[in-house]
Amino acid sequence: MALALALALALALAQTAPALAAGRVEPAKAPVGLAYVVRYEGALAPDTLELLKRVSKAETLLTAPPDSVLLLERRAEEDKTAFAKVFQSQGHFAATIAATVEAAATPLVLTYRIDTGPQFELRRVTLTPAGGSDPAALPTPEQIGLTVPAPFAAKAIVEAEAKLTEVLHDNAHPFAKVADRQVTADFATHSVAVVWTVDAGPQALFGPAVFKGQTTVKESYLAGLVPWQRGAPYDARTVERFRKKLTSLELFNAVVVETGPVDPATGQAPILVELVERKHRTIKGGVDYKTDEGPGANLGWENRNLFGGGEKLSVAASGSGIEQSGEAAFDKPDCITPKELFRAKAKIVNEDKKAYKGQNATVTASLRRQFTESFSAAAGLGYRASRIAEDQSRPWEDDARYGFIFAPLEASYDGRDDVLDPQKGLLASASAAPYWGTLAGGADFLRPEFSLAHYLKLVEKPGIVLATRVSGGANIGASRNDVSPDLRYYAGGSGSIRGYSYQSVGPMRGNTPIGGGSLLTFSAELRWRVTELIGVVPFLDGGTAFTGALPPYDQPIMLGAGLGLRIYTPIGPVRLDVATPLARRKDIDDIAQFYCSIGQSF
User: Fold this and answer.
1) pLDDT (tens digit, 9 = 90+) per residue, 445-481?
2) How far apart are CA 239 and CA 563, in angstroms?
3) 242, 225 in Cβ contact below 8 A?
4) What superfamily in CATH does domain 121-199 come from?
5) What pTM did the predictor assign?
6) Any residues with CB less than 8 A from the CB of 139 and at least 6 apart, and which?
7) How many CA atoms, within 13 angstroms, populate the side-chain half-sphere of residue 484?
8) Which residues pair with 247 in a beta bridge?
9) Which helix (H) or strand (E) holds 240?
10) Residue ranges per domain, the chain?
11) Cα angle at 544 between 555 and 326, to 5 degrees?
12) Going by C-beta distance under 8 Å and a sequence separation of 6 or more, which residues neighbour residue 197?
């Protein structure tokens, strides 16, 4: 450190030595040129005035004043041309712009006198076929988002032109294009007419999918994912949905889907798919820290193309001071049809928690069907075995054994725009699993659960997102003590109510949690992305675990509030949260809890 300071001091002295030797410090140089200000006269809407300032050369070069009045007038002439284009885009084709320079003033005054004139109306839209196209194939103005008459706006015309080709591509014309566009303004009637000349191209039916570039992924698997029937009318939306599906498989670094030429004999257009495979094996790991749980780490490995048909085998292990686990899962896509996914999973856990100590093992097999891009449902069968060495709700009973057969049913909807950092959309799931006890004295019960999270972007710049979540569950049909401690409900901690330590919210025996028969938690976060790298998140969490599964409930709702820091990285946001309990309990709650992990809290 001392060496670094010495070098820095030497460098500073070397840089200032010439000035010191001369006995004086050079003064800062004033800007060279004629300083000026810009003024605007005329009835202008605030957003229009702001747009004019953004395109104005005189405004953007204020800090680089010209050397003469003539050069300033040249800037004004360039601005008049740019301003005229702005007004034309808004339908003010008769706008007049005058610019004057007060050369005697100090600083110079550049004044723009603007009369926008009337806004012209769009009164006629004509679509003309070209290249022998069928006129009946062309959409109506209403189908491309234009109403007549309406105030003219260039933006609406550009958007309508894009919609024009989109409509044709979605209706069996994959090669449709706009050959020409003419916009004519009539100054006598203050009206505008737009004429598009459209080459719709040949009408096409879906042909075969032709794959190229895959090496280990079986073509038969990819062909089974094709969502169209050969010979059906071509639809660009279906092709795009297929491209997104291939991309989501995580098997390819690049996916390019193009439409081939139409076969004159059959009218079919082949879909050409060029692929670049990625490595199918991945090792991943992570670390986290929570005040109430201590440090934690996880490590995983997966192969996403085990037998060449997109089969995934994954193994993972995680550990912290209170829990260690290992699990393995196997996924088989395209199980019955391309919409079904078979999953088998096994997990073993060792837990050393305040409420209980013990081990459990779970095996499940399920079949999930993807009904739409966002909605899916699953049904399965599983078995769970537990050995509870210590149960704080029954301190007199050691080494208790539990066994349950269960049949989970689940439906989920994922409409988020991003999995790691959603900005908008809805994530919802609901499940119900009947449990049947298999050991002596084992209880039978129904376990329904739900979770609902919503994301709403309030402000585009800076990015501010309101994220809310509510979740809950219950063990219906059995008393709390008849359910194994590792299946009871607990609240508090990073995943539920920040500010309260893990499992500390809900039924207690003294200072020790004993679990409940039901749960309700909720959260709200205001995610403010201050810069591209940094975000700030004030949040409020609440909820509790209740003794009984059904009302009346006996536990008060507990609230925790805090502030989070987000550091945005290519692998997702790094989360740093600090929270405090709003109803701090003596000898139970600390003044604050700290959490550090990767990804948003929900």
Assistant:
1) 999 999 999 999 998 888 899 999 999 999 999 988 8
2) 44
3) yes
4) membrane protein fhac (3.10.20.310)
5) 0.73
6) 127, 164, 167, 168
7) 26
8) none
9) helix 236-248
10) 36-115, 121-199, 205-277, 281-598
11) 135
12) 128, 129, 130, 178, 179, 180, 181
